[in-house]
Design a protein that fits this description.
3 domains, 22 helices, three-stranded mixed sheet, mainly alpha, CBS-domain, homodimer, two-stranded antiparallel sheet
Chain lengths: 456, 456
């Protein structure tokens, strides 16, 4: 129960602090700067470190109080953390992370050098070693990885007076303690007692009669996504985690869920754009370029393929150069429409699409793209007719747009659904695949139809 | 303080419930179904309603307990809510929403018919009318719109014993009451008293000595985004909201912040894909098509423009048809690279980019695209040389790729930064603009260079 008081003691406007720090770094004012940092909340220092170029970042980092280092390492983005850890000695790093709660230590462990983990491990009590081992064993994205061990267990056959006396032995309750957990003599969870109820009932009331028994219980192997939904749906602040025997092994707090959700949604946006991970704004261009290469390389392959599709029809294009001018329209709009379909499919919780509703969604998406094909394909057809005075070319345009929009809808629906069936996140490849299909498909359909119907 | 007990009494697996409900709907079992619904948490019923086709949805809705209707309306997505409200009579709707807390009523108000709002307004106490009016006056995305009125104010010159007696008059404390608020005789906030501290201290301790005075205070006009960051950074469960005189006017809970964040991140993903709003999976194809038209229309305009850029070079393409085959590569990869730049820029908090770091970021993004241009442009150049045996064509390809990647990086950086400077969200138009620039730019640069260097 090493949790410190997390309440912001001095909340500063970070934007205001930055120029101040900037000024303090240049002249020789380490003591003023140190005093200022001592006064700040670790989370605020973390924010500032991320905004500083590497040299200044390390200068500030050297002035931070050792007892804050662990929490700051937890709070900074991955890329910034790596830059801080790289500059630290094994002993200093070990001392910093040893101050953290076991669950947080476990979260940080993948970023730490092996030697440091070994040092820390040796310094722990047997119970904490066991906890650290189990916490590190849970896979990312599971409840086990979100859980902490700051639960307060009590027995059901005592009065609130006894509970109060027990709680008064704490200097401070762990953050987000909205309820304490009622267990039997074998540590099995039998209910929860909200702090609320302790406060609004007299000391003579019994825990057994006040506790809630019909409550959410999480399991360490459950998916964190599911838990995030549960927290949101039932407005929970904390929830107990029990093992397969019903024994209380930990708790999950809303704060852990919030952190998880924020990371997930950031990763989602980054993955959508084909980035492997977030980037430190001050990392080298070379580092960043590597972060972006996989997606560009995949896209380049898709583009080469599409280019060869066009190459097949070079004879037709030579005869009628308008085809080259018009073909990007067919490919592009279908790509846009397909990504709309994917966004809609992903905005529905995928596991809630049943076999019956899947058919319905498929028919609907095909109808929408049919409608859009006629509407916007019609506009594009008129555009083509107006420019090249060929009625057949206009018709080819409408047909190709409609067909390719439907191909796009099919791909936009099937890719996320298949990924989900295979139990995989829609990763960095799905957007590339979608674009590849709508591009190559668009070129093939448009140039193919044109070759058939426009050849003299 | 109408807040009911939000704890899940009966948590069911929703996926398991769906087929059950499906079965119960077909035969004549309304009473069984009604009993089942009575047992369920409103949030679970809300989930199920969203998964049912319109006719079944309305059948189930008719069986829901009137006292749950308000909460369910709050919990369903916008599109589903509209379908439920459309089928309700003015009186029933008024009765349903009148049971809600004022802040939730205010959140629902924009979706309600005017007549219903008038009815409800008339039925409120003067204090509640005033609160409703003020709650409805705050703009979406402000703290005022997130805040609720379930704060418990106490005075500082009393003992915990007195506070406990006062709290025992409540049947239940409002959800997410982790602290109560200490005010002076003019209702000005002077501190907060965490429930934690009530529990771990004896009845004789005084509020004035135990309260925390150096605490976060929100203001109704503040941005909700800022508040979400504050909650995440300091791990808050609730925070007081004060007006310009320092008077306590409400509180924000983590739950409201979580809801806000979830909505924002969903909207973000939808906007990225060019959708005006989320869609009801069972809405008509026509409704959905309209939701997607703005973006497709904008993209079509951009595509027409790009098509005319190609049109300018038709003479060159006629002479050398390979240009038509290769040009989509140049345009496409720059588009991919530009969207990576935008994602990185957006993943940094934009208001934290200072003038100094902006230059740094610009130089870095240009370097990255230069690197990528040489690397992937080189590959594309070899591809072109291998296919068409023209060394000059290969060089044109490398140059065009490098130049267009840099154009893309510039656009990918400047569009979000400019949007942010203008105080606007990166809306539905920015992706279109980005694609327009990289497409038209790519065609122009590649075909232009080819025309200059490849003409015989």
């Amino acid at each position: 129960m090493k949790e410190s008081d997390h309440r912001p003691r001095h909340t500063r406007n970070m934007q205001a602090s930055l120029p101040l720090i900037d000024g303090l770094l240049h002249p020789q004012h380490p003591s003023t700067l140190r005093a200022m940092l001592d006064d700040m909340h670790p989370a605020d220092i973390a924010g500032i470190l991320g905004d500083l170029p590497l040299d200044q970042r390390l200068q500030v980092w050297a002035l931070v109080r050792p007892e804050h280092e662990g929490e700051i390492l937890l709070a900074v983005p991955d890329a910034v953390r790596d830059s801080l850890i790289a500059g630290m000695e094994r002993q200093a790093l070990g001392a910093a992370v040893r101050r953290l709660d076991i669950d947080k230590l476990a979260g940080l462990a993948p970023n730490l050098p092996q030697g440091v983990i070994r040092d820390v491990f040796k310094s722990l009590s047997i119970e904490d070693r066991e906890r650290l081992r189990s916490a590190m064993s849970y896979s990312k994205g599971s409840v086990g990885a979100l859980m902490d061990f700051n639960m307060i267990p009590i027995r059901d056959n005592v009065s609130l007076g006894v509970v109060s006396r027990y709680l008064r032995r704490f200097d401070e309750l762990p953050d987000h303690t909205d309820q304490i957990f009622v267990v039997d003599r074998d540590d099995r969870l039998i209910g929860v007692l909200p702090l609320n109820r302790i406060v609004i009932n007299g000391p003579e009331a019994m825990v057994g009669t006040l506790m809630l028994t019909d409550t959410i219980r999480l399991h360490p192997e459950e998916k964190a996504d599911q838990t995030a939904q549960t927290f949101g749906r039932y407005d929970l602040v904390s929830a107990p985690v029990v093992d397969e025997d019903g024994k209380l092994v930990g708790r999950v707090t809303m704060n852990a869920v919030l952190d998880y959700m924020r990371t997930e949604s950031e990763n989602d946006l980054l993955t959508q754009a084909g980035l492997l991970k977030g980037e430190d704004i001050f990392a080298s261009a070379w580092e960043s370029a590597k972060n972006r290469w996989v997606w560009l390389a995949l896209n380049l392959c898709a583009a080469f393929f599409a280019s060869r599709v066009i190459g097949t029809f070079e004879a037709s294009i030579e005869k009628f150069v308008a085809l080259a001018t018009l073909m990007p329209i067919v490919a592009g709009i279908a790509g846009n429409s397909a990504s709309q379909t994917t966004a809609i499919i992903r905005s529905l919780a995928l596991d809630r699409i049943t076999r019956a509703s899947a058919t319905r969604v498929l028919i609907k998406e095909l109808s929408i793209s049919g409608l859009n094909g006629l509407a916007w394909g019609g506009v594009a057809g008129l555009f083509a007719y107006y420019l090249y005075h060929s009625f057949t070319l206009g018709l080819v345009m409408v047909s190709a747009m409609s067909l390719n929009l439907m191909v796009g809808a099919l791909a936009g629906l099937l890719i996320p659904v298949t990924m989900h069936k295979l139990g995989r996140d829609p990763g960095i490849g799905s957007n590339v695949l979608l674009t590849a299909i709508t591009n190559s498909g668009g070129f093939f359909i448009f140039l193919g139809l044109a070759t058939v119907f426009l050849s003299p």
